[in-house]
Amino acid sequence: MFRTIAVRAAAVIIFTGLAFAWPDSSAKASSTEYPAAYPTFPVTVNGMAIDQLHNPYPLLLYRNITYFPMTWDYTSALGLTVTWNEQTGLSLDKNEMCAPLKQTLSAQTNNRSDSLVAIPVPFPVKVNGSLIDNSQERYPVLLYNNITYFPMTWRFTSEAFNWQTTWDDVRGYSIQSCERQAREASLQRDALNAANGGQLAMKDEWVYMNPLRSGGGSHSLVKAKLDGSDRMELSADNALSINVVGDWLYYIVSEPSKPNEIYKIRTDGTGRTLVSDTDGEQLWVLDGYMYFLRYAGRQPSGTGDTAQVQGRVGIFRMSIDGSNEQQLLADPAVLGFYMYGGQVYFRTMEDGKNKLYAMR
To answer: Quick one: signal sequence residues (predicted)?
Structure first.
């Protein structure tokens, strides 16, 4: 028999071994035991990997279906509202907000060879207001170590909660539960594109690219649908470091006869404008600023005499209209940089060694 402790702020559904009255059917259900195991494959929620080894509430596997503990941290990350009372039992409802996944880890490790036994929950369970018949479920809601565990079947993940789930033998099982986290993945994709030269950029169903840049032929900035259709030339520029910001593309034009200048053009091919004639490379456009590396040999006048310094000068930024330029880092040893999460990560060559630094 069980007593329920409802923790409002923590909202963790926990059951202790003290007395709690349930109908006769619950006694029968609680006597049924189901063998379970720990998943041996990676599991991620909104891109964050779950530490199964040190988690006091580890995921379970029953009949090859992954089960999640209905703790506050997991339900918040999955975008679920959990309510409980002694009369109606447990209710899970989909909402549109997901919190970042928090993991409270323990120094004690879970023994993967342990024999695990769970039982069906001895109380009613509703999903989006509909009562499920747990006794008829092939993958019932379970109780393990006094914690409610919910099955991640297609019926619930896709149809009831509208999550995106994927599986493969290498990456394991992944759940994307909220669009906000999907946007974070999009930002990571854009950052990786910029870090690798910005040869193409994506937004919605369009790809913007300079397809012949490395082929030695005539260059152009073009756009096309994801399937290659509706191809259109936007300009004849040899575009590098392509960034998509709203309805504009920001990029560097690389020509042998002049410095690498920063241009912008609308995504429909109109409004091509010179933003800055600075000699830059590795352009990143983020939060209203353009970040770039600058060469020493062809700096605009008024920035100081650095002609004697060869190669790059350091990391600069300016507003997206070309104003308010400032130098963030003066270091000719910088080879490249990467921006994410409010930090600038940059690589240098010093004393014959590659070194990695970070700054705000």
So the answer is: 1-21
Question: Are 17 and 91 within one domain?
Answer: yes
Do residues 209 and 243 lie in contact, with contact meaning Cβ atoms separated by under 8 Å?
no
Q: How confident is the model at residue 304, as a pLDDT?
A: 42
Amino acid at 207: V
Cα–Cα distance list, 160 to 113, 230, 323 (Å): 33, 36, 50
The tally of CA atoms less than 13 A away on the side-chain side of residue 155 is 10
Angle of CA points 91, 161, 46, to nearest 5°: 110
Contact 17, 4 (CB under 8 A): no
How many H helices and E strands in the chain?
4, 31
d(CA 334, CA 75): 44
Task: Say if strands 125-127 and 89-94 run parallel, antiparallel, or are unpaired.
Answer: parallel
C-alpha distances out from residue 253 to 32, 224, 262, Å: 70, 20, 6
Provide the whole-model pTM.
0.49
Residue that has been written with the tokens 């906000």 in this structure: 180
211 plus 304 within the same structural domain: yes
pLDDT tens sequence across 46-91: 888 899 989 999 999 999 999 999 999 999 999 999 998 888 899 9
Q: Looking up tokens 């912008």, which residue turns up?
A: 264
| CB contact set of 293 (below 8 Å; sequence gap of 6+) | 280, 281, 282, 312, 313, 314, 315, 316, 334, 336, 337
How far apart CA 121 and CA 135 sit, in angstroms, is 10
**Which of 124, 145, 153, 131 lies closest to 63, judged by CA?**
153
Q: Please check whether residues 172 and 188 belong to one and the same domain.
A: no
Q: Check: CB of residue 263 under 8 Å from CB of residue 272.
A: yes
Instruction: Tell me the DSSP string of 239-258.
Output: EEEEEEETTEEEEEEEETTE
d(CA 112, CA 37) in angstroms, rounded, equals 8
Structural domain range at position 81: 3-177
SS (H, E, C) 257-276: CEEEEEEEEECCCCCCEEEE
